[in-house]
Amino acid sequence: MADRVKRDSKQKAPSSPGDARRDRWRKHRIARRAEFVEAALKALDEHGPELGMEDVAAAAGVTKPVLYRHFEDKADLYVALGQRGTELLFERLMPAINAELAPVPRIRMALNAFFTVIEEHPNLYRLLARNSFADKPVDADVVAEDKEVIATALTALLGDYMRMFNMDSGAAEPWAYGIVGMVQNTGEWWLDKRTMSRDSVVEYLTQIIWAAIDGLSRQHGVTIDPDQPLEANKVVKLAHVRTEKTGEGS
């Protein structure tokens, strides 16, 4: 009997009803905040990057005081929009980058993922890429952060392939940053000018990137068939974590 008491005393105490209520309330706040971010995306489509909190509240069907229970200020909303923008981009980009395709179709698919996202959410990209947001946090540059993460992942991917072909992988990092910078700058130009279709700009960039890869590989005596999958499908993972605030209120 004594042993039974000792064993029972070592068992973890069950969660109290108060813990369960707090957990449900936390999940409710997270879900509610996510709803407001989606409303902010809709407001962005209508009002552009200069949207106000009143525009977001109207799109969400609530008053500004309710909105401020979930966001400390406009800067907090900016960070939340940045988080959502990153999610939208990576949800499309990761499957494309890691697709088991031939080199050129794989490049094309990754580029199409990026241009599809900025085409669907042009004002979100403009908001995050430019310094026009009046209350933007001083240390918040979502596009620069994402660029760094993507370039780092692309460096690893290119380096793996270059080593596979016995090439100097030291070029992987400048190549990666050059490619990411070119794609980003072209994306901003394309959103402003729209002088060609998304398919056209994706195809032009695909050919430019492949020409560089093909040219360098041939210099090292390596010939890669652009339309045949490589023997090894190297993959990458994007590690991008931002702290999510839940806010208070209902």
TrEMBL record:
InterPro entries: Homeodomain-like_sf, HTH-type_TetR-like_transc_reg, HTH_TetR, Tet_transcr_reg_TetR-rel_C_sf, TetR_C_32. It comes from the Bacteria. Residues 1-24 are annotated as: Disordered. Residues 1-11 have a biased composition (Basic and acidic residues). Keywords: DNA-binding. Residues 30-89 form the HTH tetR-type domain. Pfam families: TetR_C_32, TetR_N. The keyword DNA-binding applies. Residues 52-71 bind DNA. This is TetR/AcrR family transcriptional regulator. It comes from Prauserella endophytica.
